[in-house]
Amino acid sequence: MLNRTADSVARATPEPLARKVRGISDKGLAWLFISPTILLLLAINIFPLFWAIYLSFTNYRANRPNEMVKNVGLANYKRILGDQDIWIAMQTTAHFVFWTILLQTLIGFTLAWLIDRKFRGHAFWTTIILVPMMLSPAVVGNFWRFLYEPQIGLFAYAVSFVTGIPATQIGMLSNVSLAPWSIVIVDTWMWTPYVMLICLAGLRSIPEYIYEAAEVDRASNWRQFWSITLPMALPFIMLAVLFRGIENFKMFDMVNLLTGGGPGSTTEVASITLKRQAFESWRTGYSSAFAIILFVAVFGLANIYVKALNKVKQR
Amino acid sequence: MSLTSAHSVVAPSAVSKRVAGTIIVLYALISIVPLLWIFATSFKTPPDSIAYPPKILFQPSLEGYCNLFSTRTRQTPEYINALGPATGVCDETVRKRNMVIAGPSNFMPRFVNSLIIAFGSTFCAVFLGTLSAYGFSRFKVPLADDLLFFILSTRMMPPIAVAIPIYLMYRELGLSDTALGMILLYTAVNVSLAVWLLKGFIDEIPREYEEAAMIDGYTRLQAFWRTVLPQATTGIAATAIFCLIFAWNEYAFAALLTSGTAQTAPPFIPTIIGEGGQDWPAVAAGTTIFLVPILVFTILLRKQLLRGITFGAVRK
Protein backbone atom coordinates (compact mmCIF):
# COMPACT_ATOMS: atom_id res chain seq x y z
CA MET A 1 0.00 0.00 0.00
CA LEU A 2 2.66 2.43 1.14
CA ASN A 3 4.89 1.27 -1.67
CA ARG A 4 2.27 1.98 -4.28
CA THR A 5 1.79 5.51 -2.92
CA ALA A 6 5.52 6.04 -2.98
CA ASP A 7 5.65 4.81 -6.55
CA SER A 8 2.93 7.13 -7.74
CA VAL A 9 4.60 10.04 -6.01
CA ALA A 10 7.85 9.00 -7.58
CA ARG A 11 6.37 8.92 -11.07
CA ALA A 12 4.94 12.40 -10.62
CA THR A 13 8.19 14.01 -9.49
CA PRO A 14 11.01 15.13 -11.75
CA GLU A 15 13.68 12.54 -12.57
CA PRO A 16 16.48 13.26 -10.03
CA LEU A 17 14.10 13.49 -7.11
CA ALA A 18 12.22 10.42 -8.24
CA ARG A 19 15.35 8.28 -8.23
CA LYS A 20 15.94 9.27 -4.66
CA VAL A 21 12.47 8.19 -3.64
CA ARG A 22 12.72 4.88 -5.49
CA GLY A 23 16.08 4.13 -3.90
CA ILE A 24 16.18 2.28 -0.61
CA SER A 25 15.76 4.49 2.44
CA ASP A 26 18.89 5.32 4.43
CA LYS A 27 17.67 3.36 7.39
CA GLY A 28 16.94 0.32 5.28
CA LEU A 29 20.30 0.59 3.61
CA ALA A 30 22.09 0.89 6.95
CA TRP A 31 20.57 -2.39 8.13
CA LEU A 32 21.09 -4.04 4.77
CA PHE A 33 24.79 -3.17 5.03
CA ILE A 34 25.33 -4.06 8.66
CA SER A 35 23.16 -7.12 9.18
CA PRO A 36 25.23 -9.65 7.16
CA THR A 37 28.23 -9.02 9.41
CA ILE A 38 26.13 -9.28 12.56
CA LEU A 39 24.46 -12.46 11.32
CA LEU A 40 27.78 -14.07 10.50
CA LEU A 41 29.18 -13.22 13.92
CA LEU A 42 26.03 -14.53 15.59
CA ALA A 43 26.36 -17.81 13.71
CA ILE A 44 30.10 -18.37 14.06
CA ASN A 45 30.84 -16.67 17.40
CA ILE A 46 27.77 -16.15 19.54
CA PHE A 47 25.83 -19.33 18.87
CA PRO A 48 28.91 -21.50 19.61
CA LEU A 49 29.52 -19.43 22.73
CA PHE A 50 26.07 -20.23 24.05
CA TRP A 51 26.59 -23.85 23.13
CA ALA A 52 29.81 -23.83 25.13
CA ILE A 53 27.99 -22.28 28.09
CA TYR A 54 25.42 -25.06 27.91
CA LEU A 55 28.13 -27.74 27.64
CA SER A 56 29.98 -26.30 30.61
CA PHE A 57 27.10 -27.45 32.83
CA THR A 58 27.24 -31.03 31.50
CA ASN A 59 29.57 -34.01 31.53
CA TYR A 60 29.54 -34.23 27.70
CA ARG A 61 32.52 -35.85 25.97
CA ALA A 62 32.98 -35.11 22.28
CA ASN A 63 34.58 -38.51 21.63
CA ARG A 64 31.47 -40.29 22.92
CA PRO A 65 28.66 -38.45 21.11
CA ASN A 66 26.07 -41.15 21.73
CA GLU A 67 26.44 -41.32 25.47
CA MET A 68 23.71 -39.81 27.67
CA VAL A 69 24.49 -36.20 28.50
CA LYS A 70 24.01 -35.50 32.17
CA ASN A 71 23.46 -32.07 33.67
CA VAL A 72 26.04 -31.60 36.40
CA GLY A 73 25.23 -28.02 37.40
CA LEU A 74 28.19 -26.02 38.62
CA ALA A 75 30.38 -29.08 39.28
CA ASN A 76 32.77 -28.33 36.39
CA TYR A 77 33.36 -24.79 37.60
CA LYS A 78 33.91 -25.95 41.16
CA ARG A 79 36.41 -28.56 40.01
CA ILE A 80 38.34 -26.05 37.93
CA LEU A 81 38.67 -23.59 40.79
CA GLY A 82 39.94 -26.41 43.01
CA ASP A 83 42.17 -28.00 40.37
CA GLN A 84 45.86 -27.69 41.18
CA ASP A 85 46.88 -28.10 37.52
CA ILE A 86 44.69 -25.20 36.42
CA TRP A 87 46.28 -22.91 38.99
CA ILE A 88 49.74 -23.97 37.89
CA ALA A 89 48.77 -23.22 34.30
CA MET A 90 47.50 -19.80 35.34
CA GLN A 91 50.80 -19.14 37.11
CA THR A 92 52.74 -20.18 34.01
CA THR A 93 50.57 -17.85 31.94
CA ALA A 94 51.11 -15.02 34.41
CA HIS A 95 54.89 -15.54 34.29
CA PHE A 96 54.80 -15.53 30.49
CA VAL A 97 52.55 -12.47 30.20
CA PHE A 98 54.42 -10.46 32.84
CA TRP A 99 57.92 -11.00 31.47
CA THR A 100 57.05 -10.68 27.79
CA ILE A 101 55.24 -7.41 28.40
CA LEU A 102 57.94 -6.01 30.65
CA LEU A 103 60.74 -6.85 28.20
CA GLN A 104 58.81 -5.78 25.12
CA THR A 105 57.80 -2.47 26.65
CA LEU A 106 61.32 -1.63 27.86
CA ILE A 107 63.09 -2.68 24.65
CA GLY A 108 60.30 -1.46 22.37
CA PHE A 109 60.14 1.99 23.93
CA THR A 110 63.93 2.35 23.92
CA LEU A 111 64.08 1.40 20.25
CA ALA A 112 61.31 3.85 19.39
CA TRP A 113 63.03 6.58 21.36
CA LEU A 114 66.26 5.94 19.44
CA ILE A 115 64.53 5.76 16.04
CA ASP A 116 62.85 9.07 16.81
CA ARG A 117 66.30 10.64 16.50
CA LYS A 118 65.76 10.27 12.75
CA PHE A 119 69.31 9.22 11.89
CA ARG A 120 70.12 8.53 8.27
CA GLY A 121 68.47 5.35 7.00
CA HIS A 122 66.10 5.06 9.95
CA ALA A 123 63.11 4.21 7.75
CA PHE A 124 64.90 1.26 6.16
CA TRP A 125 66.12 -0.20 9.45
CA THR A 126 62.70 0.28 11.04
CA THR A 127 61.17 -1.84 8.29
CA ILE A 128 63.80 -4.56 8.89
CA ILE A 129 63.01 -4.55 12.62
CA LEU A 130 59.29 -4.88 11.90
CA VAL A 131 59.59 -8.10 9.88
CA PRO A 132 59.42 -10.71 12.69
CA MET A 133 56.00 -9.60 13.91
CA MET A 134 54.37 -10.16 10.53
CA LEU A 135 55.36 -13.81 10.32
CA SER A 136 53.34 -16.84 11.34
CA PRO A 137 54.03 -17.51 15.05
CA ALA A 138 53.46 -21.20 14.47
CA VAL A 139 55.85 -21.60 11.57
CA VAL A 140 58.50 -19.42 13.18
CA GLY A 141 58.00 -21.04 16.62
CA ASN A 142 58.58 -24.39 14.99
CA PHE A 143 61.84 -23.18 13.51
CA TRP A 144 63.04 -21.83 16.85
CA ARG A 145 63.01 -25.43 18.06
CA PHE A 146 65.90 -25.92 15.68
CA LEU A 147 67.70 -22.76 16.82
CA TYR A 148 67.36 -23.92 20.45
CA GLU A 149 68.84 -27.40 19.85
CA PRO A 150 71.66 -27.78 22.40
CA GLN A 151 74.27 -29.25 20.05
CA ILE A 152 73.48 -27.99 16.59
CA GLY A 153 71.31 -24.94 17.25
CA LEU A 154 72.53 -21.45 16.48
CA PHE A 155 71.12 -19.99 19.72
CA ALA A 156 72.95 -22.42 22.00
CA TYR A 157 76.10 -21.92 19.95
CA ALA A 158 75.90 -18.13 20.22
CA VAL A 159 75.23 -18.26 23.97
CA SER A 160 78.10 -20.66 24.57
CA PHE A 161 80.34 -18.48 22.38
CA VAL A 162 79.55 -15.45 24.57
CA THR A 163 79.40 -17.08 28.01
CA GLY A 164 81.78 -20.01 27.62
CA ILE A 165 79.24 -22.54 28.90
CA PRO A 166 79.45 -25.71 26.76
CA ALA A 167 76.72 -25.67 24.12
CA THR A 168 75.56 -29.15 25.11
CA GLN A 169 74.50 -27.80 28.50
CA ILE A 170 72.23 -25.11 27.08
CA GLY A 171 69.08 -27.16 26.67
CA MET A 172 66.59 -24.32 26.43
CA LEU A 173 63.69 -26.65 25.72
CA SER A 174 64.67 -29.62 27.90
CA ASN A 175 65.81 -27.83 31.05
CA VAL A 176 62.91 -27.27 33.45
CA SER A 177 64.17 -23.88 34.64
CA LEU A 178 65.15 -22.60 31.17
CA ALA A 179 62.06 -23.69 29.23
CA PRO A 180 59.75 -20.94 30.61
CA TRP A 181 62.33 -18.43 29.39
CA SER A 182 62.60 -20.00 25.96
CA ILE A 183 59.03 -18.95 25.15
CA VAL A 184 59.59 -15.50 26.66
CA ILE A 185 62.63 -14.98 24.41
CA VAL A 186 60.84 -15.98 21.20
CA ASP A 187 57.77 -13.90 22.01
CA THR A 188 59.94 -10.90 22.86
CA TRP A 189 61.87 -11.32 19.63
CA MET A 190 58.64 -11.46 17.65
CA TRP A 191 56.58 -8.75 19.30
CA THR A 192 59.01 -6.07 20.50
CA PRO A 193 58.65 -4.40 17.06
CA TYR A 194 54.92 -4.17 17.68
CA VAL A 195 55.35 -2.22 20.91
CA MET A 196 58.08 -0.18 19.24
CA LEU A 197 55.82 0.86 16.37
CA ILE A 198 53.04 2.04 18.69
CA CYS A 199 55.51 3.87 20.97
CA LEU A 200 57.03 5.54 17.92
CA ALA A 201 53.60 6.88 16.98
CA GLY A 202 53.26 8.16 20.53
CA LEU A 203 56.61 9.95 20.43
CA ARG A 204 55.83 11.48 17.06
CA SER A 205 52.49 12.77 18.31
CA ILE A 206 54.23 15.10 20.81
CA PRO A 207 54.23 18.59 19.32
CA GLU A 208 57.67 20.17 19.08
CA TYR A 209 56.59 23.50 20.57
CA ILE A 210 56.30 21.82 23.98
CA TYR A 211 59.98 20.93 23.85
CA GLU A 212 60.81 24.41 22.61
CA ALA A 213 58.94 25.91 25.56
CA ALA A 214 60.76 23.55 27.94
CA GLU A 215 64.02 24.63 26.38
CA VAL A 216 63.15 28.26 27.03
CA ASP A 217 62.41 27.34 30.64
CA ARG A 218 65.83 25.66 30.80
CA ALA A 219 64.45 22.25 31.69
CA SER A 220 67.20 19.62 31.56
CA ASN A 221 66.98 16.77 29.04
CA TRP A 222 66.36 14.39 31.94
CA ARG A 223 63.53 16.56 33.22
CA GLN A 224 62.05 16.89 29.73
CA PHE A 225 62.04 13.14 29.32
CA TRP A 226 60.21 12.51 32.60
CA SER A 227 57.74 15.38 32.44
CA ILE A 228 57.04 15.62 28.71
CA THR A 229 58.14 12.58 26.69
CA LEU A 230 57.02 9.79 29.00
CA PRO A 231 53.65 11.18 30.14
CA MET A 232 52.65 12.15 26.62
CA ALA A 233 53.63 8.79 25.17
CA LEU A 234 52.03 6.90 28.05
CA PRO A 235 48.57 6.32 26.51
CA PHE A 236 50.27 4.73 23.52
CA ILE A 237 52.46 2.54 25.71
CA MET A 238 49.35 1.47 27.62
CA LEU A 239 47.58 0.65 24.40
CA ALA A 240 50.48 -1.55 23.33
CA VAL A 241 50.60 -3.23 26.74
CA LEU A 242 46.89 -4.00 26.70
CA PHE A 243 47.06 -5.39 23.18
CA ARG A 244 50.02 -7.61 24.01
CA GLY A 245 48.42 -8.58 27.32
CA ILE A 246 45.28 -9.86 25.63
CA GLU A 247 47.21 -11.60 22.87
CA ASN A 248 49.65 -13.30 25.23
CA PHE A 249 46.96 -14.27 27.70
CA LYS A 250 45.47 -16.44 24.96
CA MET A 251 48.85 -17.47 23.50
CA PHE A 252 48.70 -20.84 21.83
CA ASP A 253 50.38 -21.31 18.46
CA MET A 254 53.99 -20.38 19.14
CA VAL A 255 54.16 -22.20 22.48
CA ASN A 256 52.36 -25.27 21.16
CA LEU A 257 54.96 -25.75 18.44
CA LEU A 258 58.00 -24.66 20.39
CA THR A 259 57.54 -26.65 23.60
CA GLY A 260 54.07 -28.18 23.40
CA GLY A 261 53.73 -27.24 27.06
CA GLY A 262 56.77 -29.27 28.07
CA PRO A 263 59.04 -30.38 29.53
CA GLY A 264 56.37 -31.86 31.78
CA SER A 265 54.00 -28.96 32.12
CA THR A 266 56.55 -26.20 32.79
CA THR A 267 55.45 -24.12 29.80
CA GLU A 268 51.84 -25.19 29.81
CA VAL A 269 50.05 -21.84 29.45
CA ALA A 270 46.27 -21.67 29.82
CA SER A 271 45.47 -22.27 26.14
CA ILE A 272 47.66 -25.38 26.05
CA THR A 273 45.90 -26.80 29.13
CA LEU A 274 42.60 -26.04 27.46
CA LYS A 275 43.68 -27.85 24.31
CA ARG A 276 44.92 -30.86 26.26
CA GLN A 277 41.66 -31.09 28.22
CA ALA A 278 39.42 -30.51 25.22
CA PHE A 279 41.14 -32.31 22.37
CA GLU A 280 43.34 -34.93 24.09
CA SER A 281 41.41 -35.92 27.24
CA TRP A 282 38.11 -35.07 25.50
CA ARG A 283 36.61 -33.64 28.69
CA THR A 284 34.40 -31.36 26.64
CA GLY A 285 32.11 -30.18 29.44
CA TYR A 286 34.99 -29.51 31.81
CA SER A 287 37.08 -27.70 29.18
CA SER A 288 34.05 -25.64 28.08
CA ALA A 289 33.76 -24.37 31.64
CA PHE A 290 37.46 -23.46 31.60
CA ALA A 291 36.99 -21.77 28.21
CA ILE A 292 34.15 -19.68 29.62
CA ILE A 293 36.29 -18.62 32.58
CA LEU A 294 39.12 -17.61 30.23
CA PHE A 295 36.69 -15.83 27.98
CA VAL A 296 35.24 -13.81 30.84
CA ALA A 297 38.79 -12.82 31.84
CA VAL A 298 39.67 -11.72 28.30
CA PHE A 299 36.36 -9.92 27.94
CA GLY A 300 37.12 -7.95 31.07
CA LEU A 301 40.51 -7.01 29.62
CA ALA A 302 38.87 -6.11 26.31
CA ASN A 303 36.48 -3.78 28.08
CA ILE A 304 39.33 -1.91 29.73
CA TYR A 305 41.13 -1.91 26.41
CA VAL A 306 38.30 -0.26 24.50
CA LYS A 307 38.02 2.46 27.11
CA ALA A 308 41.76 3.14 26.89
CA LEU A 309 41.55 3.09 23.12
CA ASN A 310 38.83 5.74 23.10
CA LYS A 311 40.92 7.87 25.43
CA VAL A 312 43.88 7.68 23.05
CA LYS A 313 41.64 8.52 20.14
CA GLN A 314 40.27 11.62 21.82
CA ARG A 315 43.71 13.14 22.18
CA MET B 1 73.26 26.72 27.19
CA SER B 2 75.57 26.21 24.27
CA LEU B 3 74.41 25.27 20.82
CA THR B 4 75.62 21.68 21.11
CA SER B 5 73.27 20.94 23.99
CA ALA B 6 70.20 21.99 22.01
CA HIS B 7 67.34 19.65 22.76
CA SER B 8 67.69 16.25 21.26
CA VAL B 9 64.20 16.04 19.77
CA VAL B 10 64.00 19.56 18.54
CA ALA B 11 67.38 19.05 16.87
CA PRO B 12 69.12 15.80 17.76
CA SER B 13 72.88 16.30 17.89
CA ALA B 14 75.11 14.49 15.41
CA VAL B 15 76.62 12.33 18.14
CA SER B 16 73.28 11.22 19.57
CA LYS B 17 72.11 10.43 16.05
CA ARG B 18 75.15 8.29 15.40
CA VAL B 19 74.79 6.41 18.69
CA ALA B 20 71.08 5.84 18.11
CA GLY B 21 71.74 4.69 14.55
CA THR B 22 74.40 2.21 15.65
CA ILE B 23 72.19 0.64 18.32
CA ILE B 24 69.22 0.34 15.96
CA VAL B 25 71.28 -1.19 13.17
CA LEU B 26 72.77 -3.69 15.63
CA TYR B 27 69.33 -4.64 16.95
CA ALA B 28 67.95 -4.98 13.42
CA LEU B 29 70.84 -7.21 12.35
CA ILE B 30 70.55 -9.47 15.40
CA SER B 31 66.79 -9.74 15.12
CA ILE B 32 67.00 -10.71 11.47
CA VAL B 33 69.53 -13.51 12.08
CA PRO B 34 66.91 -16.23 12.77
CA LEU B 35 65.27 -15.44 9.44
CA LEU B 36 68.56 -15.47 7.56
CA TRP B 37 69.29 -18.77 9.27
CA ILE B 38 66.00 -20.24 8.01
CA PHE B 39 66.89 -19.08 4.52
CA ALA B 40 70.44 -20.47 4.75
CA THR B 41 69.29 -23.80 6.20
CA SER B 42 66.89 -24.31 3.32
CA PHE B 43 69.91 -24.50 1.01
CA LYS B 44 71.93 -26.90 3.18
CA THR B 45 72.18 -30.65 2.92
CA PRO B 46 70.77 -32.51 5.95
CA PRO B 47 74.28 -33.37 7.28
CA ASP B 48 75.36 -29.73 6.89
CA SER B 49 72.25 -28.49 8.69
CA ILE B 50 73.04 -30.45 11.85
CA ALA B 51 76.80 -29.93 11.86
CA TYR B 52 78.57 -28.69 14.98
CA PRO B 53 79.65 -25.93 15.14
CA PRO B 54 76.79 -24.56 12.98
CA LYS B 55 78.03 -24.01 9.44
CA ILE B 56 77.92 -20.44 8.20
CA LEU B 57 79.71 -21.22 4.96
CA PHE B 58 78.53 -24.28 3.08
CA GLN B 59 78.05 -25.74 -0.37
CA PRO B 60 74.50 -24.73 -1.38
CA SER B 61 72.21 -27.60 -2.27
CA LEU B 62 68.62 -27.94 -3.42
CA GLU B 63 68.08 -31.08 -1.36
CA GLY B 64 65.80 -29.31 1.13
CA TYR B 65 63.50 -28.11 -1.64
CA CYS B 66 63.58 -31.52 -3.35
CA ASN B 67 62.66 -33.25 -0.09
CA LEU B 68 59.93 -30.70 0.57
CA PHE B 69 58.14 -31.41 -2.68
CA SER B 70 58.63 -35.16 -2.88
CA THR B 71 58.29 -38.40 -1.00
CA ARG B 72 61.18 -40.79 -1.33
CA THR B 73 61.88 -44.47 -0.79
CA ARG B 74 65.20 -46.08 0.05
CA GLN B 75 66.55 -48.51 -2.58
CA THR B 76 69.60 -50.71 -3.03
CA PRO B 77 72.47 -49.22 -5.08
CA GLU B 78 71.96 -52.03 -7.64
CA TYR B 79 68.37 -50.98 -8.15
CA ILE B 80 69.37 -47.34 -8.58
CA ASN B 81 72.17 -48.23 -11.00
CA ALA B 82 69.73 -50.26 -13.04
CA LEU B 83 67.56 -47.15 -13.51
CA GLY B 84 68.19 -44.88 -16.46
CA PRO B 85 70.02 -41.55 -16.12
CA ALA B 86 68.59 -39.09 -13.59
CA THR B 87 65.87 -36.90 -15.08
CA GLY B 88 66.46 -33.74 -13.06
CA VAL B 89 68.35 -31.99 -10.31
CA CYS B 90 66.16 -33.49 -7.61
CA ASP B 91 66.41 -36.98 -9.03
CA GLU B 92 70.18 -36.71 -9.01
CA THR B 93 70.39 -35.26 -5.47
CA VAL B 94 68.09 -37.91 -4.05
CA ARG B 95 69.95 -40.81 -5.71
CA LYS B 96 73.17 -39.77 -4.00
CA ARG B 97 71.44 -40.78 -0.76
CA ASN B 98 70.40 -44.16 -2.16
CA MET B 99 66.81 -43.06 -2.58
CA VAL B 100 64.39 -42.63 -5.44
CA ILE B 101 61.53 -40.18 -5.72
CA ALA B 102 58.28 -42.02 -5.06
CA GLY B 103 55.89 -39.19 -5.76
CA PRO B 104 54.89 -35.65 -4.85
CA SER B 105 54.60 -34.73 -1.16
CA ASN B 106 51.58 -33.13 0.46
CA PHE B 107 53.21 -29.70 0.54
CA MET B 108 51.71 -28.41 -2.72
CA PRO B 109 48.09 -29.34 -1.83
CA ARG B 110 48.54 -27.79 1.64
CA PHE B 111 50.00 -24.64 0.12
CA VAL B 112 47.09 -24.42 -2.33
CA ASN B 113 44.67 -24.88 0.60
CA SER B 114 46.35 -21.97 2.33
CA LEU B 115 45.92 -19.85 -0.80
CA ILE B 116 42.24 -20.77 -1.29
CA ILE B 117 41.30 -20.28 2.35
CA ALA B 118 43.29 -17.07 2.80
CA PHE B 119 42.01 -15.40 -0.36
CA GLY B 120 38.44 -16.70 0.05
CA SER B 121 38.10 -15.49 3.63
CA THR B 122 39.82 -12.18 2.86
CA PHE B 123 37.39 -11.46 0.04
CA CYS B 124 34.37 -12.25 2.22
CA ALA B 125 35.67 -10.31 5.23
CA VAL B 126 36.52 -7.23 3.20
CA PHE B 127 33.21 -7.36 1.34
CA LEU B 128 31.15 -7.58 4.53
CA GLY B 129 33.48 -5.21 6.34
CA THR B 130 33.19 -2.49 3.69
CA LEU B 131 29.39 -2.58 3.78
CA SER B 132 29.23 -2.51 7.58
CA ALA B 133 31.90 0.15 7.88
CA TYR B 134 29.98 2.37 5.49
CA GLY B 135 26.80 1.72 7.44
CA PHE B 136 28.42 2.65 10.74
CA SER B 137 30.24 5.61 9.25
CA ARG B 138 27.36 7.32 7.46
CA PHE B 139 24.10 6.35 9.14
CA LYS B 140 22.72 6.77 12.60
CA VAL B 141 22.67 3.16 13.72
CA PRO B 142 20.95 2.57 17.05
CA LEU B 143 23.41 1.25 19.65
CA ALA B 144 26.26 1.76 17.17
CA ASP B 145 28.94 1.85 19.88
CA ASP B 146 27.67 -1.34 21.46
CA LEU B 147 27.51 -3.11 18.12
CA LEU B 148 31.04 -2.00 17.29
CA PHE B 149 32.26 -3.23 20.65
CA PHE B 150 30.46 -6.51 20.10
CA ILE B 151 32.15 -6.88 16.72
CA LEU B 152 35.56 -6.20 18.22
CA SER B 153 35.05 -8.42 21.24
CA THR B 154 34.58 -11.50 19.03
CA ARG B 155 38.22 -11.04 18.07
CA MET B 156 39.29 -11.19 21.70
CA MET B 157 38.09 -14.73 22.35
CA PRO B 158 40.85 -17.29 22.89
CA PRO B 159 40.94 -19.41 19.72
CA ILE B 160 40.87 -22.72 21.59
CA ALA B 161 37.77 -21.59 23.52
CA VAL B 162 36.04 -20.86 20.20
CA ALA B 163 37.35 -24.06 18.64
CA ILE B 164 35.57 -26.40 21.09
CA PRO B 165 31.98 -25.51 20.11
CA ILE B 166 32.98 -24.84 16.48
CA TYR B 167 34.44 -28.34 16.34
CA LEU B 168 31.11 -29.81 17.51
CA MET B 169 29.06 -27.52 15.28
CA TYR B 170 31.13 -28.32 12.18
CA ARG B 171 30.88 -32.02 12.94
CA GLU B 172 27.08 -31.74 12.96
CA LEU B 173 27.00 -29.63 9.78
CA GLY B 174 29.58 -31.70 7.92
CA LEU B 175 31.95 -28.73 7.70
CA SER B 176 34.86 -30.42 9.50
CA ASP B 177 38.02 -30.40 7.43
CA THR B 178 36.47 -28.44 4.56
CA ALA B 179 37.76 -25.29 2.94
CA LEU B 180 34.28 -23.75 3.22
CA GLY B 181 34.27 -24.24 6.99
CA MET B 182 37.66 -22.62 7.35
CA ILE B 183 36.70 -19.72 5.07
CA LEU B 184 33.57 -19.05 7.15
CA LEU B 185 35.56 -19.16 10.38
CA TYR B 186 38.38 -16.91 9.18
CA THR B 187 35.85 -14.50 7.70
CA ALA B 188 34.16 -14.23 11.10
CA VAL B 189 37.49 -13.57 12.80
CA ASN B 190 38.69 -11.07 10.20
CA VAL B 191 35.46 -9.16 9.72
CA SER B 192 35.96 -7.40 13.06
CA LEU B 193 39.33 -6.08 11.93
CA ALA B 194 37.88 -5.14 8.54
CA VAL B 195 34.97 -3.19 10.05
CA TRP B 196 37.14 -1.27 12.48
CA LEU B 197 39.86 -0.42 9.98
CA LEU B 198 37.54 0.46 7.13
CA LYS B 199 35.32 2.59 9.31
CA GLY B 200 38.39 4.70 10.02
CA PHE B 201 39.22 4.98 6.34
CA ILE B 202 35.63 5.81 5.30
CA ASP B 203 35.28 8.35 8.11
CA GLU B 204 38.11 10.24 6.45
CA ILE B 205 36.29 10.56 3.12
CA PRO B 206 34.27 13.81 3.17
CA ARG B 207 30.52 13.30 3.07
CA GLU B 208 30.24 16.18 0.59
CA TYR B 209 31.26 13.86 -2.26
CA GLU B 210 28.25 11.62 -1.80
CA GLU B 211 25.93 14.52 -1.11
CA ALA B 212 27.02 16.16 -4.35
CA ALA B 213 26.50 12.90 -6.20
CA MET B 214 23.03 12.49 -4.71
CA ILE B 215 22.04 16.02 -5.69
CA ASP B 216 23.11 15.06 -9.20
CA GLY B 217 20.48 12.34 -9.08
CA TYR B 218 22.38 9.29 -7.82
CA THR B 219 20.71 7.11 -5.26
CA ARG B 220 22.55 6.48 -2.00
CA LEU B 221 23.65 3.07 -3.30
CA GLN B 222 24.98 4.52 -6.54
CA ALA B 223 26.75 7.28 -4.63
CA PHE B 224 28.37 4.65 -2.42
CA TRP B 225 29.42 2.62 -5.45
CA ARG B 226 30.65 5.47 -7.64
CA THR B 227 32.15 7.96 -5.19
CA VAL B 228 32.94 6.32 -1.85
CA LEU B 229 34.39 3.02 -3.05
CA PRO B 230 36.90 4.56 -5.48
CA GLN B 231 38.06 6.93 -2.73
CA ALA B 232 38.48 4.07 -0.28
CA THR B 233 40.58 1.79 -2.48
CA THR B 234 43.83 2.37 -0.55
CA GLY B 235 42.09 1.60 2.72
CA ILE B 236 40.38 -1.45 1.28
CA ALA B 237 43.65 -2.75 -0.14
CA ALA B 238 45.47 -2.26 3.17
CA THR B 239 42.65 -3.96 5.08
CA ALA B 240 42.65 -6.85 2.62
CA ILE B 241 46.37 -7.40 3.10
CA PHE B 242 45.95 -7.45 6.88
CA CYS B 243 43.15 -10.01 6.63
CA LEU B 244 45.23 -12.04 4.20
CA ILE B 245 48.22 -12.08 6.55
CA PHE B 246 46.06 -13.21 9.47
CA ALA B 247 44.42 -16.02 7.52
CA TRP B 248 47.75 -17.03 6.01
CA ASN B 249 49.50 -17.22 9.39
CA GLU B 250 46.65 -18.73 11.42
CA TYR B 251 47.51 -21.98 13.17
CA ALA B 252 45.24 -22.79 16.14
CA PHE B 253 41.96 -23.28 14.24
CA ALA B 254 43.70 -24.95 11.33
CA ALA B 255 45.47 -27.44 13.59
CA LEU B 256 42.32 -28.36 15.52
CA LEU B 257 39.69 -28.28 12.79
CA THR B 258 41.54 -29.62 9.74
CA SER B 259 43.53 -32.77 9.40
CA GLY B 260 43.54 -33.80 5.76
CA THR B 261 41.88 -32.39 2.68
CA ALA B 262 41.53 -28.82 3.98
CA GLN B 263 44.72 -28.63 6.04
CA THR B 264 46.68 -25.42 5.49
CA ALA B 265 50.47 -25.01 5.43
CA PRO B 266 51.12 -23.85 9.05
CA PRO B 267 50.02 -27.11 10.71
CA PHE B 268 51.64 -29.10 7.90
CA ILE B 269 55.15 -27.63 7.87
CA PRO B 270 56.09 -28.84 11.41
CA THR B 271 55.13 -32.39 10.45
CA ILE B 272 57.75 -32.67 7.70
CA ILE B 273 60.08 -35.40 8.89
CA GLY B 274 62.92 -37.26 7.25
CA GLU B 275 64.68 -40.42 8.28
CA GLY B 276 65.57 -40.19 11.98
CA GLY B 277 63.89 -36.95 12.98
CA GLN B 278 62.87 -33.62 11.56
CA ASP B 279 64.23 -32.92 8.08
CA TRP B 280 65.38 -29.38 8.89
CA PRO B 281 66.43 -28.30 5.37
CA ALA B 282 62.99 -29.34 4.08
CA VAL B 283 61.26 -27.58 6.99
CA ALA B 284 63.38 -24.50 6.30
CA ALA B 285 62.52 -24.68 2.59
CA GLY B 286 58.81 -24.89 3.39
CA THR B 287 59.13 -22.05 5.88
CA THR B 288 61.00 -19.90 3.35
CA ILE B 289 58.39 -20.41 0.63
CA PHE B 290 55.66 -19.74 3.18
CA LEU B 291 57.25 -16.52 4.52
CA VAL B 292 58.22 -14.83 1.24
CA PRO B 293 54.71 -13.52 0.40
CA ILE B 294 54.45 -12.02 3.89
CA LEU B 295 57.79 -10.25 3.50
CA VAL B 296 56.60 -8.68 0.26
CA PHE B 297 53.33 -7.60 1.87
CA THR B 298 55.10 -6.12 4.89
CA ILE B 299 57.17 -3.90 2.65
CA LEU B 300 54.11 -2.86 0.64
CA LEU B 301 52.17 -2.15 3.82
CA ARG B 302 54.77 -0.38 5.92
CA LYS B 303 52.95 2.96 5.84
CA GLN B 304 49.64 1.42 6.98
CA LEU B 305 51.14 -1.07 9.41
CA LEU B 306 50.52 0.94 12.55
CA ARG B 307 46.91 1.45 11.72
CA GLY B 308 46.36 -2.20 10.97
CA ILE B 309 47.91 -3.59 14.14
CA THR B 310 45.95 -1.24 16.40
CA PHE B 311 42.56 -1.79 14.75
CA GLY B 312 42.64 1.78 13.48
CA ALA B 313 43.13 3.27 16.95
CA VAL B 314 46.44 4.93 16.06
CA ARG B 315 46.60 6.60 12.66
CA LYS B 316 49.88 8.50 12.88
TrEMBL record, chain B:
One Pfam family this sequence matches: BPD_transp_1
What keywords would UniProt list here?
Cell membrane, Membrane, Transmembrane, Transmembrane helix, Transport
The name of this protein is: Dihydroxyacetone ABC transport system, permease protein
Tell me the organism's taxonomic lineage.
Bacteria, Pseudomonadati, Pseudomonadota, Alphaproteobacteria, Hyphomicrobiales
Topological category with respect to the lipid bilayer = Multi-pass membrane protein
Q: Which Gene3D superfamilies match?
A: MetI-like
InterPro entries membership: BP-dep_ABC_trans_perm, MetI-like, MetI-like_sf
Query: Where does it reside?
Result: Cell membrane
Natural source organism? Mesorhizobium escarrei
Q: Which residues form the ABC transmembrane type-1 domain?
A: 111-301
Q: Which family does it belong to?
A: Belongs to the binding-protein-dependent transport system permease family.
Q: Which residues cross the membrane?
A: 20-40, 115-136, 148-170, 182-202, 223-248, 280-301
